[in-house]
Every structure is written in C-alpha cells, then in structure tokens.
C-alpha cells in the first residue's frame, strides 16, 4: 500500500505519503490564496523526499471538507485526476475527522474550522475517531450553548474564544493525520466515502441578480 493523501479545504495545502505502516513523507504550507499554485509542487516534494515516483501510489486520500468552494475543489480535482491516471481508488475523508484524529482527545469535544463570513464549519465528536453530528456551518454565537464546556480544536475555534473558551491546537488539518486515519479504516475493512465535496453553502462568486445576457442580433 502507498497512499497519497492531500487536503485543500482549509488555508493549509497539505500532502503526505503513507506506506501502510506509517507516514513516510509530508508537507504543509498555509496560504489560503495559493492552493492551486502550491499543491502540485508539494506532491512532487513528498514523492522526492520518499524517493518514489507517482506511479508507485496505489490509492489516493483526499479531504472532502467542509470548506470554501475554490480551495476545496483544487484538492478534489487533483485527487480525481491522479486516480484516473493511475487507475487507483480515490477515498474521501471528512476534513473535520482528520482534525479530530490529530487532536487525539479521549472525551467529547468539538472541531471547528474557519468558514469565513463570521461562521465556522463544525461537528461534535465522542472521541478522536467517532463523529456524533453531521458537519454544519453556523455563527459561533448561535452554537455557543451546544458546545459549552467542551474542548475544541481547529482554526475556527481558536478564532472565536468567546464561543470556544477551551480551544487549542491543531488549527489546520494535516494530510499526515488524514493518511493515518484512512489507512487505519482501510486496514479494518471499512469503506471510505466517495470523494464528494462537503460545500454546505453556495460559493461566494455568483451571477448578479437581474443580470442581462447580451447576444448579437
């Protein structure tokens, strides 16, 4: 097994290789505006660090969000393209699940990432491997009572300490955590979801209302 894991659902552009036993190479850069520019060089870098070629990859793991439309689709389209080129399966993993796994907390807690517009993408977890609510997008103040008293991880939690007073690192997801979580699930015979994006809301860029289409006569 050689899994190539990647995620662009948060400001982090993160890539890792997992050989079935552990992560053998990884790269993470935080730049919310350069996902498309940074992802392929990061993949080249981790392959070079591991001394491997792309054709050695037997499976792709990609974070499916939730996340902003533009950044999220960069990772998903790259994963789908590599999967087709290599004839390798593409496995989706919820980005929030990757953060929960990296947090390695025992009791109930919350994961929240920055959704912009003064909102967060979030979910509750019973432990680092068990999500108990579907991912959602809300204003921190609107969910303060639901998350009261719970530890929280993720950049969204760190950004709004009034709603998440017990927030701490990690802030952004790492592909290394995604790869370890996916490898663990696959080894246990679990099926991972198809790589379908969790957008949760419409993209920021939309056609203006009352837009007039002008066509030549």
UniProtKB/TrEMBL annotation:
UniProt entry tagged with the keyword Metal-binding: no
Residue span, Gcp-like domain: 32-144
GO cellular component: cytosol
Source superkingdom: Bacteria
InterPro entries in the record: ATPase_NBD (IPR043129), Gcp-like_dom (IPR000905), T6A_TsaB (IPR022496)
GO MF, any single term: tRNA N(6)-L-threonylcarbamoyladenine synthase activity
EC number of this enzyme: 2.3.1.234
One GO process term, biological-process aspect: tRNA threonylcarbamoyladenosine modification
Alphabetically ordered keywords of this record: Acyltransferase, Transferase
Protein name per its UniProtKB record: tRNA (Adenosine(37)-N6)-threonylcarbamoyltransferase complex dimerization subunit type 1 TsaB
Native source organism of the sequence: Streptomyces tuirus
Taxonomic lineage of the native organism: Bacteria, Bacillati, Actinomycetota, Actinomycetes, Kitasatosporales
